Amino acid sequence: MSHGFELNPPKEAALPQAPGLSMVGTLLAKVNQGLLVLSMVAMVTTALILTYSVVSRYFFHAPTDWQDEASIFMLVGVTFFCCAYVQSFRGHIGIEALAAILPPKVNAVRLFVVDLLSFVFCAFFSWKSWTLWHEAWVDGQTTTSTFAPPLWIPYSMMAAGMTLLTLQILLQVLARITDKGAAK
After folding, report:
1. Does residue 7 have a pLDDT over 60?
2. Looking at residue 182, what is its pLDDT?
3. Per residue in 132-148, is it b (16+ CB within 10 Å) or e — as a string?
4. What is the pLDDT of residues 71-101, one digit of tens each?
């Protein structure tokens, strides 16, 4: 099993060599980096909110009704906004049992097929996420709590994050097709 970041993690994401793809890859890398920083801030903010909630309830016996949903919304954003960044480094967990026994050319085909299937799945997930966002926006859906924040907020983060992941995988598929060095 490979975790992608174990031995010698790359300093930066691998970019495709084709001129047009390279430019798109650079732009996507900058967006991913910005979302990574935003996600770090959201994680710290979530920790502070949850700590405040515990302290408020324990010491002051004052419950808060907003902290759970605010924290969940931020964690949804963090999870989905960081997917494309992790994928750009091939950092998602992959089972490498077949890679060790397959010939290099067959393994390259296997990796291409896996990337292609991942792209199709993520594209479908992105599309469904955008339909959920649209439905929540049009219908004015909210959570059932007394705080009742609108559901379009987490759905938009989920949809945007999955769209970026889909674009990242598409970029890697196209790089594998156009670049001989991208087959790693």
Report:
1. no
2. 46
3. bbeebeeeeeebeeeee
4. 999 999 999 999 999 998 887 777 677 778 8
Please report, as a single letter, which amino acid is at residue 170.
L
Judged by phi (left if over 0) then psi (alpha if -120 to 50, else beta), residue 90 lies in left
Position 183 scores a pLDDT of 45
Secondary structure tally for the chain: helices H, strands E: 5, 0
Cβ contacts of 45 within 8 Å, gap of 6 or more: 74
What is residue 1's predicted lDDT score, i.e. its pLDDT?
47
CA distance 83 to 92: 9
Contact (CB, 8 A) for 165 and 123: no
Judged by DSSP in three states, 3 sits in coil
- Confidence at residue 65, expressed as pLDDT on a 0 to 100 scale: 83
Residue 34 binned pLDDT confidence (cut-offs 50, 70, 90): very high
d(CA 63, CA 58): 9
The CA distances from residue 132 to 109, 140, 156, in Å, are 35, 12, 9
Q: Yes or no: say if 32 and 88 are a contact pair by the CB < 8 Å rule.
A: yes
How far apart CA 143 and CA 80 sit, in angstroms, is 20
Rounded Cα distance, 66 and 58, in Å: 16
